[in-house]
C-alpha cells in the first residue's frame, strides 16, 4: 500500500479515515506461527480488543486464528463473525458471576482471574472446564497503564495465593484445564518473559488435567525508525524448547496459546487526516487537523508516539510542527516534530494506527467516528461507514416537555 493509494482512499472515502492493510496482518500472523513451528500444538487467539471490526475478525478467522475476548459483547461479536464457541477464549476482569455463567452457556472457554468468583463458579459448576489466570508478579510494559503482571495489578490471582487457589479447586472438585498469564504490553526483554514462563510452569505442576498453557502476549512492535521490538524469533526458539521439555516432564502434549492483539494489527493500520489550518504563533507552528483525541487517544493516554508522514508532500523540506487536533482541550499528537513542509489541505498519515485507535474512539465533542477501510488484494474495501448525525442521536430520547405556545 503506497502513498498514492492512501491519497486515493482519502479522496474516495473522506477524512479522517482508518486504513488497514490485510497483507501486513497476514504476515504478522505467519511470522508468529513460524517462530513457534517447533511446538506441536500451537494456537493463536487474536486479542480482539485491539481492533474489533467484524471484517478483521473474519480475515483472521480464515487464517485459523481463535479469539481472545474480555467481555460478553466481544464474545457475541466473535460468534457473529463466524467463530465457533470452542475457538473463543473469554478472560474478563471484575465482571459478575452472572456474565461469566451466561458466556459459559454459549460453550466458550472461560478464564477466571479472582478467588471469589472461582470458588462461587466451582461450587455451582464443578464439571465445567475452567482456565485460571495467574498474576506472576513480573513487570512488563512500557507504561504503567499497560503493565498488568506487577504486584499491585488488579489482574489475575497472585502467585502467592496459589495454596489458597489449590484448596478451592480441591474442595469444589473443579475441572482445571488451563493456566494463563499476561505480564503486560510492550515486552522489551524476552528474558523477563521467560522468567515469568517458569513461574507459570511451576504453577501448572499443581494441576493434573491441563490441556493448555496460555502465555498471553504483549509483544512490542516498532513505532518509529530503528525502534526496538520484541525479538519474536529468539523468543520462539527459547520458549519452544522450554515448553516442549515441560510437556515431556508433565507427561502430556499440551497446547501453547498466545493472544496477540497489537502485534497482529498495529503496523497494519494508518490513520489519515486532513490539515485544516497552519497557525504560526510567536514560538510554534501548529498544523491543525480534522481529528483529535476522540479518534486517536493513545498519545494523550499512554504518551505513545505515532510516526506522522505528510503523504501529500513526502519529499518536501522538513520543518518543525506541532500537530494538534480540534478538541476543546489540550489535544497534541506531536510537539515540534520534523515533518516535510505541511500546507493547508495536505493529508497526513499516522502510522501504527491499527491497535487501540478506533476501538478507543469516542463521540467526545459530539464528533462523528470515522470510517474504516481494509486494503485487501489491491483494493480498498469500506468495512465501516462514517457516522452521521442520525447515528449520534439514534439512542437518545427527548423529554416529553409540553409544546411552547
TrEMBL record:
Q: What is this protein called?
A: Diaminopimelate decarboxylase
Can you give the residue ranges of the Orn/DAP/Arg decarboxylase 2 C-terminal domain? 18-354
In what pathway does it function?
Amino-acid biosynthesis; L-lysine biosynthesis via DAP pathway; L-lysine from DL-2,6-diaminopimelate: step 1/1
- What does the record give as the organism's lineage? Bacteria, Pseudomonadati, Bacteroidota, Flavobacteriia, Flavobacteriales
Organism name: Flavobacterium frigidarium
Q: Enzyme group, top EC level?
A: lyase
Entry annotated with the keyword Amino-acid biosynthesis: yes
EC numbers: 4.1.1.20
Q: Which Pfam families match?
A: Orn_Arg_deC_N, Orn_DAP_Arg_deC
Amino acid at each position: 500500500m503506497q502513498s498514492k493509494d492512501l491519497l486515493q482512499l482519502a479522496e474516495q472515502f473522506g477524512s479522517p479515515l482508518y486504513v488497514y492493510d490485510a497483507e501486513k496482518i497476514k504476515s504478522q500472523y505467519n511470522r508468529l506461527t513460524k517462530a513457534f513451528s517447533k511446538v506441536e500444538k500451537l494456537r493463536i487467539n487474536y486479542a480482539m480488543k485491539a481492533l474489533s471490526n467484524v471484517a478483521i475478525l473474519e480475515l483472521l478467522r480464515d487464517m485459523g486464528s481463535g479469539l481472545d475476548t474480555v467481555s460478553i459483547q466481544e464474545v457475541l461479536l466473535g460468534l457473529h463473525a463466524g467463530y465457533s464457541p470452542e475457538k473463543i477464549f473469554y478472560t474478563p476482569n471484575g465482571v459478575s458471576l452472572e456474565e461469566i455463567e451466561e458466556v459459559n452457556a454459549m460453550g466458550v472457554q472461560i478464564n477466571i482471574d479472582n478467588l471469589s468468583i472461582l470458588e462461587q463458579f466451582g461450587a455451582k459448576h464443578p464439571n465445567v472446564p475452567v482456565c485460571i489466570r495467574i498474576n506472576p508478579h513480573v513487570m512488563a510494559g512500557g507504561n504503567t497503564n499497560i503493565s498488568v503482571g506487577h504486584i499491585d495489578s488488579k489482574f489475575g490471582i497472585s502467585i502467592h495465593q496459589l495454596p489458597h487457589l489449590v484448596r478451592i479447586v480441591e474442595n469444589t472438585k473443579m475441572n482445571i484445564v488451563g493456566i494463563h498469564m499476561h505480564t503486560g504490553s510492550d515486552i522489551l526483554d524476552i528474558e523477563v518473559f521467560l522468567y515469568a514462563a517458569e513461574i507459570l510452569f511451576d504453577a501448572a505442576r499443581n494441576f493434573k488435567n491441563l490441556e493448555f498453557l496460555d502465555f498471553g502476549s504483549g509483544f512490542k512492535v516498532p513505532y518509529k525508525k530503528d525502534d526496538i521490538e520484541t525479538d519474536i524469533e529468539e523468543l520462539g526458539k527459547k520458549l519452544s524448547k522450554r515448553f516442549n521439555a515441560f510437556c515431556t516432564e508433565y507427561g502430556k502434549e499440551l497446547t501453547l496459546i498466545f493472544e496477540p492483539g497489537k502485534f497482529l494489527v498495529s503496523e497494519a493500520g494508518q490513520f489519515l487526516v486532513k490539515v485544516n489550518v497552519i497557525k504560526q504563533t510567536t514560538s510554534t507552528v501548529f498544523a491543525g487537523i480534522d481529528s483529535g483525541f476522540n479518534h486517536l487517544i493513545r498519545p494523550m493516554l499512554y504518551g505513545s508516539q505515532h510516526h506522522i508522514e505528510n503523504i501529500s508532500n513526502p519529499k518536501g523540506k522538513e520543518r518543525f510542527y506541532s500537530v494538534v487536533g480540534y478538541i476543546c482541550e489540550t489535544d497534541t499528537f506531536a510537539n515540534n516534530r520534523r515533518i516535510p513542509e505541511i500546507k493547508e489541505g495536505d493529508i497526513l498519515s499516522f502510522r501504527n494506527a491499527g491497535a487501540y485507535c478506533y476501538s478507543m474512539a469516542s463521540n467526545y465533542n459530539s464528533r462523528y467516528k470515522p470510517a474504516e477501510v481494509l486494503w485487501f488484494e489491491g483494493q480498498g474495501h469500506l468495512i465501516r461507514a462514517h457516522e452521521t448525525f442520525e447515528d449520534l442521536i439514534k439512542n437518545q430520547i427527548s423529554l416529553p416537555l409540553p409544546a411552547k405556545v
